[in-house]
């Protein structure tokens, strides 16, 4: 099966940089995704890393190291609207049935 | 593209009653997934359809749960004889296999069993 571990919460000030780490143990690995979820909202896709390295999308970047079974999401130039839960997730097969971590709650303070 | 829509958004029911949730996926997506999410946790996979075929059911899906996607478009998730432990957010998602790794989620149907 899949097991993904991430910190439960992070607090930072506006303009700061936050890194959310995710370590995984999987019986088969098809890549690492990141999703954002605001309170009461739908999870929304942020990024997907199938291969090692850094993927950058605006203020957010995601990194994967398959040899270390580790990835992270980097949030730069934090804004108040970035306060949300962030989930790492991994497909259990190429059918994209995702296993999610428990989520990291990011709180951005003024 | 109107996104994934779910109905109802909120449902309060008494223990023992049956409830049904509906999901309308993005029209061109042939894969549809149901997940369950409880407070402070990530979504947990329940079941998945490719077109009208239900290809996998999680062990979380007891025999009180049934899901259908009769014409390969919308899907329903029915819970019979609800229990308090069924209280959760039920999320539907759809996927275009070309878009690697991305699921499009609806805003969910929140179930409260009293």
Helix/strand layout:
The complex is a heterodimer of chains A (110) and B (114).
Chain A: E1 2-5, E2 9-13, E3 18-26, E4 32-37, E5 44-49, E6 53-57, E7 60-65, E8 70-75, E9 84-91, E10 98-100, E11 104-109
Parallel strand pairs in A: 2-11
Antiparallel strand pairs in A: 1-3, 3-8, 4-5, 4-9, 6-7, 7-8, 9-10, 9-11
Chain B: E1 5-7, E2 10-13, E3 19-24, E4 31-37, E5 44-50, E6 53-57, E7 65-68, E8 75-79, E9 88-95, E10 104-105, E11 109-113
Parallel strand pairs in B: 2-11
Antiparallel strand pairs in B: 1-3, 3-8, 4-5, 4-9, 5-6, 7-8, 9-10, 9-11
Q: Give the proportion of residues in helices of chain A.
A: under 10%
Oligomer: heterodimer
Q: Output the helix-strand order of chain B.
A: EEEEEEEEEEE
Total of DSSP H or I helical runs spanning 4+ residues of chain B? 0
In terms of DSSP E residues, the strand content of chain B is over 45%
What are the segments of chain A in which pLDDT stays under 50 over at least 5 consecutive residues?
A: none
- Taking all residues together, what is the mean pLDDT of chain B? 93
Class by alpha and beta content of chain B: mainly beta
N- to C-terminal separation of chain A? 40 Å
In angstroms, what separates the terminal alpha carbons of chain B? 36 Å
- Secondary-structure element sequence of chain A? EEEEEEEEEEE
Give me the number of helical elements of chain A. Answer: 0
Return residue spans of chain B where pLDDT drops below 50 for at least 5 consecutive residues: none
Q: Mean pLDDT of chain A, rounded to whole units? A: 93
State the largest interface.
A-B, 24 and 25 residues
Overall spatial form of chain A: globular
Q: What share of the residues of chain B lie within helices? A: under 10%
How many DSSP-defined strands of chain B? 11
The main sheet of chain A comes to: 6 strands, mixed
* Major β-sheet annotation of chain B: 7 strands, mixed
């Amino acid at each position: 099966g899949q097991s993904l571990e991430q910190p439960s919460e992070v607090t930072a000030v506006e303009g700061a940089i936050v890194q959310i780490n995710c370590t995984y143990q999987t019986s088969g690995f098809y890549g690492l995704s990141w999703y954002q979820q605001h309170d009461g909202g739908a999870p929304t896709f942020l990024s997907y890393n199938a291969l090692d390295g850094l993927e950058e999308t605006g203020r957010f970047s995601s990194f994967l190291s398959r040899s270390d079974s580790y990835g992270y999401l980097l949030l730069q130039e934090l804004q108040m609207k970035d306060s949300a839960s962030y989930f790492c997730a991994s497909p259990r097969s190429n059918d994209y049935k995702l296993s999610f971590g428990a989520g990291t709650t990011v709180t951005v303070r003024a | 593209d109107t996104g994934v829509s779910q109905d109802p958004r909120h449902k309060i029911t008494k223990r023992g009653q049956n409830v049904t949730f509906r999901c309308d996926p993005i029209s061109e997506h042939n894969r549809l997934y149901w997940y369950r999410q409880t407070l402070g946790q990530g979504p947990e996979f329940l079941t998945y359809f490719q077109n009208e075929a239900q290809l996998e059911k999680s062990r979380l899906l007891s025999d009180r749960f049934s899901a259908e996607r009769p014409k390969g478009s919308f899907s329903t998730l029915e819970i019979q004889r609800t229990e308090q432990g069924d209280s959760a957010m039920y999320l539907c998602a759809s996927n275009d296999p070309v878009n690697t790794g991305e699921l499009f989620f609806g805003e969910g149907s929140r179930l409260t069993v009293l």
